[in-house]
Structures are given as structure tokens and as C-alpha cells.
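User: ok so my PI wants both of these folded by tonight, can you help

Assistant: No problem, let's get them done. Here's the first:
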Amino acid sequence: MSERKPLRLGSLVATIVLAVAGGLLFKLLHIPIPWLLGPMIAMLIANNAIENRFYWPQQLRNTALIIVGYTIGLSLTAAALKEIAHQLPYMLVMAVLLLAYCAGIAYVVSKFSGMGYKTALMGSIPGGLSQVILLAEETEGINITAVTFTQVTRLMMIVICVPLIVFSPILGQTHDAAATAAAAASAVQPTWGGLFPNILIFAVAGVACALLGNRIKLPTAYMLGPAIGTAALQLAGVHGPALPGTVIEVAQLMIGIYVGLMLRPRQLPNKLKNLSLALGSSVLLIAGALGMALLLSALQPVTEATGLLSLAPGGMDQMGIIAHEIHADLSIVAGYQLFRMFFIFFVVPPLLRMVLRIQPGDRVKRRGAA
């Protein structure tokens, strides 16, 4: 026991040092969202080069989710909630379209790979990673390793590619460091002193709501719980102070490390084939989300960037961070992501179970693995 603690501490320190180095490098290179992407790429490379050397406790990732949940909750004002209610029919249509598109991608992947429609479908569903893995474990004839790898690859592709698309000429955004600095200088910046005393109320409420949400099995409880608690306090008339940029960057770093450590291609059989299929399906999914975002911006008064972040099938925490960074409509992004998350959490599992009973058995060669 006494040897294990120093080992874990050393691994934690090495993880933090490498992640900070990745963030600083991406910041020097003026890459968008450097404190999310830098640590994520650094940990992806390092963890696959040196196995079992890095360590990141779940509690730190949960702390980052509470911070992101708080920033999302700040955007859920009474006016924003009215706008979200107005968008509900569009949320439903876009969620159904995205899921139908994912089912089509799964069919194509299953035909080219021979992995079986069940496994391909589970890998393509744009739900929360933990939700999909749990559902896959409960379904007979599923290759769990392939599903996990495909889901994590999709998540990382979205987190990497969406900022690049948002800051590209396609959506009219530009990543101009000088303009960003000038805008930041002219804006009123949150201060550490301005956090108190109200931040103490929100901190206690956020942690309590996260723990309660986790206890009642709320999806993404450590983010959704604080978001709901923060919004409720604001609607009750309690002012929620904006967080300093340093706090947001630390939260990005903590989430970036967690995502980077999730993907371990060395543990996957048929690496090249599975990686190619995962990357290909992820590209198709991002292209579909971009097309739907352009459609949404034509139908509703939202920017293309807000539409893409609202519909991108990534985690709500990552999309929320990017929306905050580019000053997109965070309430709309959160509303669409929340709706799809609840839709997938409550509606999709029974539908999937029904569809997967009808589909022929998955032809995964489990006998070879055994």
C-alpha cells in the first residue's frame, strides 16, 4: 500500500506536467481551444507510447464537469428558457434526423466491415459514452471493445474537428488572436474578488445537485445537476458571478486529459481496419451534423456555428466549452444537446432493443477471441 501511493502521485504529476505542456504548445501555435485540445492530444500520444504510466482520478474530471455545468446554468436565464421552449419542435426533428442518419452510417459500416449491424449501430449512436456502453453490455452479440473504440474515436474526432470547422471560413468564424485580445481588453473581465460571496452559494448547490443527480442516475449528472441548480438559483433571483478565464481553462485541461486517456488503440484487434472504419464513420457523422446545422440556421435565427455546436454529436461539456470560447448562443447549444441527451436516454434504448431483436445476430467472431 505504501508503494502504491507514491506511484500514483508520480503518475498524476507526470500527467499534469505533460498536459500543461500540451496546452502551452497549442496556445503558442494559436490552435483553437488550446487548453482542451492540447492536453487531449498530448495524453493520447503519451499514453499509447508508454502504457500504464499516467493517471487521472475520476474526481478531477467530475470537478471539471461541475464547473462546465455552472457556466451552462448561467446561460439558462428566463429569456433563454423561453427561446428553448420555442425551439422544441426543431429539437425533436433534428434529433430524429441525426439518429436516422447514424443508423444509415451503421448499415454502411456493417456491410463493409462484416462486424454485424448490432455492433455498428451501437458504435454510431450519438449518445453519452457510458449510456451506450451499458446498453451494449446488456445486448447479446455485441463486440464491446469495438463499440467503445468507435465511440471514443467519434468523440475525439468531434472535439478536434468541430473547433477547426467553427473557426474556418465555412462558418464565417475567424481565429484572430489579436482581435480576440482586443475584444477581451474592451470587455469587462470577471475578477476573483467579484466571485464572493455568491459563488459559495452556487458551489454548495452545484456539488449537492451533482451528487443528487448521480444518486438518481441522471445522465451526465456531474454537469447536468449543477446546470439545473444554477439555473434555478438564478431564476430565484440569486446573481451568479461569471468565472475568471483561468478557471475555465483549468476545467478544459481536466476534461482534455480525461478524454485523451480514454482511447487506447493498442488494445484493439485489427487496429488498422477498425481505426479506418471509426475515422470514416466519424467524418460522415460530422459532415451530416454540418449539413443539418446549415439547415437549422436557414430555418431559425441562429448562426451556423451555434447550429453546429447544437447538433454535433459530441459531449455537451466539450460543445459547451467551445460555445463559451467563441461566444456562441450557449443556451441554445445547451438546449439542443440536453434535449438529444434526454431523447437518447429515455426513448432510444427501448427502440434499440426492439430493432436489435429484429436484426439478424451479430457475426462477431467471439469464438476466435475465446
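One down. Here's the second:
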Amino acid sequence: MSQLRFYQSLWATEQRLPGVAEAPISERFDQVKAAGFDGMAIDLGAMDLATAWAVVPEFARSGLAALLTAFPRSIEELRPALHLAKDIGSPFVVVVGQVMPVSVDGMIPVIREWLKISEEESVPIQFETHRNCITNDLFATLQLIDAIPEMRLSADLSHYVVDREMMLPLEPELAAYVSRLLARSDSFQGRIATRCQVQVPIGFPQHRPWLDLFLSWWDEGFRHWRARPGNERQDLVFLCELGPRPYAITGADDCELSDRGAEALALRELVRARWTGLLSP
């Protein structure tokens, strides 16, 4: 029977406090393990490949499962990231492609080349719905998934809420566009956005309508995922990715407005409840 597996991001464990050194990586792995997460994600947008290789022993030591996000700046730059993914046992690689042709016609061969490398290396890839990359724009991504049926997504919809300055209540046409993305998504990332801010504290009452929107999207995405043949024997990855500043909003005292560690746990439980509800008769 499929399980929902919760991952934390190593990047999201950074505090980035001015003048204060970050906790050692081994300590952060231990904290994530103690918090009950199933795995840890390495983000090659936040560290270089050599540094990431040095982190590899922490997975075996901590017992956390691994996930990798790559930011390839060329077609071939994806390949070494896939080698790292094999070494840490990442079930797939999330791609935030830094090759960004202006036209969709120019994007299609880039996506196909990365998919070819994925097949050659026997490592599945999912393209994250992310700003400042080949899937930067909601409308372009919809055209890409129409043109490339084998293209799979990792849904971080916070980027598209800001990208398209979505307003509540969501227009039916826009909701239908998001549904098309969710139907092609094989993993999900957790962050709450508003139309003007990519990450907001989830406990503030003024953000509750946006939290409810994202919970409904994840619910829909989970339903699509569970309906696909073969997934009844697979696990679904949900990555809690509440990033440090400047993703996290700071006040005049230069401190974050909320406790991201506590928020990640609260978000995990809200999402777990949605998943559990889908399993109820």
C-alpha cells in the first residue's frame, strides 16, 4: 500500500542569522530525523556538487532517505547530478532547469534532451514548477506538458501563485489550468504563497484562505496520483520546503516573523490529515 513520505530540505534548515554560524550539517540531519521526517533533500541551487558529495555519508549515518534537486545550466550538467542521485538513493531528481529559451518551441528540445539523459542514466526526473527556470511561467509549462506527454512535474505551486499574481477567489479558468498541472505531478512541495509573496507564515489568520487553497490543491494532486496505475505500490514524496531569508519574511529587527521549524511540523500534520482522509472509506 502506498505511503505519503515527508521530506525536509537541507536548505530550509539554514537560519542565515547575521553574524551567526550555521549549525553543522550532521546536527541538522539529526534534528530532521528527531522531528520524524522520512528524508532530507539536497538542493544544488544552495550548494555546489562537491559540497553535496561531502554530505553523502550523512544519509547512511542518520537513516534518512535522500532526495536531490538539480539546477543544470547546460544539457550535460544534468548528468553528474544524476550520478549523485544514484549514490544517495534518490528515487528521482527534481530539475529546475537553468537553460531557458525564450520560446516554447525552443524549450521543447531542451526538455527532450534532459529526458534522454534521464533514460540513459536510469534516473527518473521531474520538472519543478519554479520561477527563474525553463518552467518559469504557468502558461509555457502548460504548453510543454501538452507537447511532451512523458514530461512529469514536481508541483511547487507557490511560484505560480506569485508568477500569475493569482487572486482569491480563484477564477475557474485559472483553477482548471492548475488542475492540469496537478494531473501531471508526481511529487509535491509545501510552501504557502499569496499573490505577492512566495512564502508567508501559515499561522497568521490573514493567510488562512491561502493555506486552504494550497491544502485543496494538494488534496486534488494526491487524488490524481493515487488514481494512476501502479502507484498503489509506490510511495509519494511531499517536501516541506519553508526557505530561509529572503524567502522567509523578516521584520524591522531583521528577525523572521515566524518559527519555520514549527511551521514545517504544523504543515506536515495538516497535509498528513488530507492524505489520511483520502484513505478513509
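The chain is about 45% helix and 15% strand. The mean pLDDT is 96. Good luck tonight!
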